[in-house]
Each structure stands twice: as structure tokens, then as C-alpha cells.
């Protein structure tokens, strides 16, 4: 989570790749031993842990937006998982339930009247948050060759997403769902959140 207005950055959640790798190894061993009941138990535990972490992260994001009067900008990952996407393999490797996290953020934001802005994900980790030039990050570090800006790769990407959200929000004429040049602003709506209840 990054706020370009204050420069605040917060790392949320735990490392999904490492945690999923541990779960994967445990499930693989149980599968070899044909311990199906334990395997099902591990899968349920994994699902509960993922859901809990997504609830914690989404709650923190919405609480920050409410207390600081901010909108929430999130990456639109629809094209990331499409067939020709260059970063599809990377997003699959991270193995996190992004759709579930987005759903939790959307319904919690709707309860508090916080607008959500979907922005394109393309080059968000390569674009400099200061000057807008494109530079490939070196591992976890981002260094801009044009303006000299140095930052953590994920923090820089967070700022880029937030800046794209600010541009989309300032371009919008109304609070209705409206297509924008750099994003898509969605008015808070509970939709069919309680339809199953």
C-alpha cells in the first residue's frame, strides 16, 4: 500500500510464494502416501489462511482510505492472465488469490463509501514514480536512469498505481462508473454482496 500524497508505504500480508511452497510440499508428501483425509484437511487450512490474510489486508487498506479521505487504486489484472500476457507466468508463480482480495476490498470500500479506481497494470513495476520513464528493476531494487530515483521495486510500483489512480480520478466528471483515459472509476455499490444471505 502506497500513498503518494504523504510518501507513506506499508507492506501488508505475508510472503505468499514461500507459504504456498511449504503447503505444496506438505500436500505432495501426503499425496504420495495416499493420506487423502489429511490432504483435504491441509487444503481447507490453506484456504482458511488465505481468506483470513485477505480479510486482514483488505480491512487495513479500506481503514487507511477512510481515515485519510483517499480513494483506492487497484491494478486491473484481467489482461495479465490473458493468453498472450508476458507476466502471466509470474502472476501464477506468486499463487495468491488476487480476485478474492479485490472482492473483499470492493465490498468493504462500498460499506464506507470509498471509491475504487481500476488502473492498467502494464509497466507499473518498470515506470518511475517520479519522472514516468521506463526502466527495468534490478531484483527488488528500482533505480531510474533518467532522474536517479532509487526505491524498492514494490514501493515504486505502488506509487505508480496510486498516481495513475489520481490521474483517473481527476479526469472523471462524475462518481458513476465511467471509462477514463488511464483507469476506470467505480462508484461504491454493494451490488449482490448479500444476495446469498
Give the SSE layout:
Layout: E1 2-3, E2 8-9, H1 16-32, H2 36-67, E3 72-76, H3 88-94, H4 98-112, E4 116-120, E5 141-143, E6 150-152, H5 153-171, E7 178-179, E8 184-186
Parallel strand pairs: 3-4
Antiparallel strand pairs: 1-2, 4-8, 5-6, 7-8
Please give a structural write-up.
There is one protein chain. With 197 residues, the protein is an alpha+beta fold. It has five helices and eight strands; from the N terminus they run ββααβααβββαββ. A hairpin with a 4-residue loop joins strand 1 and strand 2. Helix 2 runs parallel beside helix 4. The longest helix has 32 residues. The two termini are 31 Å apart.
Summarize the structure.
The protein has helices spanning 16-32, 36-67, 88-94, 98-112, 153-171, and strands at 2-3, 8-9, 72-76, 116-120, 141-143, 150-152, 178-179, 184-186. The protein is α+β, with helices and mostly antiparallel strands and 197 residues long.
Amino acid at each position: 500500500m502506497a500513498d503518494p500524497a504523504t510518501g507513506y508505504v506499508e507492506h501488508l500480508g505475508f510472503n505468499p510464494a514461500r507459504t504456498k511452497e511449504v503447503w505444496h510440499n506438505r500436500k505432495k508428501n501426503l499425496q504420495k502416501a495416499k493420506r487423502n483425509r489429511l490432504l483435504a484437511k491441509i487444503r481447507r487450512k490453506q484456504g482458511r489462511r488465505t481468506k483470513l490474510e485477505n480479510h486482514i489486508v483488505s480491512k487495513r487498506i479500506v481503514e487507511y482510505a477512510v481515515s485519510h479521505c483517499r480513494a483506492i487504486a487497484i491494478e486491473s489484472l484481467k489482461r495479465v492472465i490473458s493468453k498472450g500476457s508476458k507476466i502471466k507466468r509470474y502472476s501464477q508463480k506468486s499463487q495468491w488469490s488476487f480476485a478474492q482480495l479485490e472482492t473483499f476490498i470492493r465490498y468493504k470500500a462500498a460499506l464506507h463509501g470509498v471509491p475504487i479506481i481500476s488502473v492498467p497494470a502494464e509497466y507499473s513495476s518498470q515506470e518511475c514514480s517520479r519522472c514516468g520513464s521506463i526502466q527495468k528493476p534490478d531484483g527488488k531494487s528500482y533505480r531510474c536512469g533518467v532522474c536517479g530515483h532509487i526505491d524498492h521495486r514494490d514501493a515504486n510500483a505502488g506509487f505508480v498505481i496510486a498516481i495513475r489512480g489520481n490521474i483517473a480520478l481527476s479526469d472523471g466528471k462524475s462518481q458513476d462508473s465511467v471509462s477514463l483515459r488511464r483507469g476506470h472509476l467505480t462508484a461504491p455499490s454493494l451490488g449482490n454482496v448479500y444476495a446469498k444471505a
